[in-house]
Design brief:
- The chain has six helices and two strands; from the N terminus they run ααββαααα.
- It is an all-alpha fold.
- The chain has two domains: about 60 residues, Multidrug-efflux Transporter Regulator, Chain: A, Domain 2; about 55 residues.
- It has a two-stranded antiparallel sheet with strand order 1-2.
């Protein structure tokens, strides 16, 4: 039976490509404790395992959904302690949804104000501009 090569664990470059997470972001998550520090090769390269990659995907997906780092930390602490309830996670998600709905309302107001400002400007090649005038008020 032929000897099997020792299976290589992926390095940060591979993990970055596989997860869509920038290398510096991965290092940052390690520094702040969201992602456990990986083992190192003899040459000092970070070597990740499947659980770390899965956790990084969780962090990235949570961030893509707009969860703040503290919220991601809370979600991970639920998972790590294995003592969470679905009701706790739902409550956190509903609170986050409320924040998003407020942001949407704020952005809708902002859009209206910007449209109104732009409607007062004819876009001519003159130095006077009603948009600049409004911004100085």
């Amino acid at each position: 039976m032929p000897l099997q090569k020792k299976q290589q664990r992926p390095t940060i470059g591979y993990v970055s490509k596989a997860t869509g997470c920038h290398i510096e972001t991965i290092r940052y998550y390690e520094r702040i404790g969201l992602l456990p520090k990986p083992a190192r090769s003899n040459g000092g390269f970070r070597l990740y395992n499947a659980d770390q990659i899965k956790r990084l995907n969780f962090i990235r997906r949570s961030r893509n959904l707009g969860f703040h780092l503290d919220e991601v930390r809370d979600l991970l602490s639920f998972v790590d302690s294995n003592t969470y309830t679905c009701a706790e996670v739902k409550s956190m998600t509903i609170n986050h949804l409320d924040e998003i709905e407020q942001k949407i309302a704020d952005l809708t107001k902002l859009k209206k104000v910007l449209k109104d400002m732009a409607s007062h400007c004819e876009g001519e090649e003159v130095p006077e501009c009603p948009i600049i005038d409004v911004l100085f008020k």
